[in-house]
Amino acid sequence: MENESVLVTGATGFIGSRLVRRLILDGKRVLCLARTSSDVSQLEGLGCSIAYCDLVKQPERINDAIANVEIVYHLAASTHTIGSNKLVQINTKATNTILQACATRPSPPTIVLVSSLAAVGPSSGFPPHTESTPRNPVSFYGQSKSACEQAAINSCDELPISIVRPPIVLGEGDRHGIELFRSIDNWGVHLVPGFSNPLFSVIHVDDLVAALTTVAERGERLTSDSESQGIYFASSDEIFTYADLGRLIGKALGKKRTRVLRVAKPCMWTYAVFNEIKSRYQGVAEFLNLDKFAEAFAGSWTCSNEKLKQQTGFHPSAPMLQRMIQTVDWYRQHKWLKPKFQIRLPSLRSRFGFARKARHSS
Asked: Domain total for the chain?
């Protein structure tokens, strides 16, 4: 429905900013929630409003923000912190703030909680996880997402809530995922943790955004008497080994060959420990820490999107190779990757030809 009023938490993030753009194109009135320290420049000029609120430190400010909204997309979450065990406390508190504020409304808004495959934990590869798979997270991040899901389930009798669980998300604007592209672009090398070949589900950010809006409009809501109703995995139809994902990105970058360099577990562990120490010393959280190390060596991370497709009609709009080419083009246009070097031989020949004719006529 056009002109619906929508609140997006985590709107300045990679996924949140793409969601805001999509909602505005769909004719929604969008209110973005951001902390005062957040960079909101990517939201400027889009036609959205911004409310400043820290869900952990300033929970009282959320009441005014949700006063008139009809849908809440809750994406705000920390993915890594200094001391990863803080993730559970931070992310759960932020989610509870949203849920409690929505529950005070006479007519509560529909809530779409963006969780993660990490809340369920690693899979055996095939068959991939389905929504009925019990939650068994192996990382602090996964535990935090599982706790957020449980908070939503505890509130489902009062609030209309759906949960969407994406796997690895790639696409334009991703400042973490770009490292996959950068190492292949610069050196033609794709680093793979360990010597096994676990399988991974992935999704492009725009397909995830489409899944979120589809679930808000046509999805089921959580119920206290069902373990899986109102929960959806959102992924591409394709499943890759991590090595093959790197080769796919290499093709998108125009590489004839991408070398797969396997990194032994002790080396990865040492690097993760170094980053933990560095984070505590510098006061800036590093992405590849011991928590991410635990996920990297936990096995396969696969999930099925069949329930989402059957119940809502969602389908990924393009294969992953096409999506990765689209992502590479965006990275090059915004100078996050070096521009592709091209020699314009026809132009050079024409210039030299003109010069020879000029000298001959004189």
From this structure: 1
Question: Cβ distance 328 to 252 under 8 Å?
Answer: yes
User: Under a CB-based contact definition with an 8 Å cutoff, are residues 285 and 279 in contact?
Assistant: yes
Measured distance CA(53)–CA(76) in Å, rounded: 11
**Does residue 129 lie in a domain region?**
yes
* DSSP per-residue codes, 156-180: TTTS-EEEEE--EEE-TT-TTTHHH
Copy the structure tokens of residue 267: 């080396």
- What's the rounded Cα separation, in Å, for the pair 18 and 31? 14
Q: Is residue 19 part of a domain?
A: no
Check: CB of residue 261 under 8 Å from CB of residue 252: no
Closest CA to 219 of 147, 151, 314, 316: 314
d(CA 106, CA 93): 23
Position 33 in a domain: no
Widest CA span in the chain: 93
Give the Cβ contact number of residue 317 at 10 Å. Answer: 11
Domain that holds residue 104: 77-170+203-237+301-318
What would the DSSP string read from start to end of 296-309?
HTS-BB-B--HHHH
| Token pair listed for 307 | 């329930």
Q: Is the dihedral of CA 290, 13, 220, 304 positive or negative?
A: negative
* Distances from the Cα of 50 to the Cα of 20, 69, 311, 358, angstroms: 11, 13, 33, 62
First to last CA, the chain: 73
Side chain identity at 184, as an amino acid letter?
Answer: I
| Residue 23 to residue 210: CA distance in whole angstroms | 10
pLDDT at 344: 42
Query: Residue 280: CB partners within 8 Å, gap ≥ 6?
Result: 82, 83
Q: What is the mean pLDDT of each run of 10 residues along the chain (362 residues)?
A: 86 95 96 88 89 89 89 90 74 95 94 98 94 95 95 96 98 92 95 94 98 97 94 98 97 96 92 80 72 90 98 96 97 91 43 40 36
Is 222 contained in some domain?
Answer: yes
Q: Which pTM was predicted?
A: 0.90
156 touches 222 (CB < 8 A): yes
Token pair for 123: 């899979």
The CATH number of the domain holding residue 137 is: 3.40.50.720
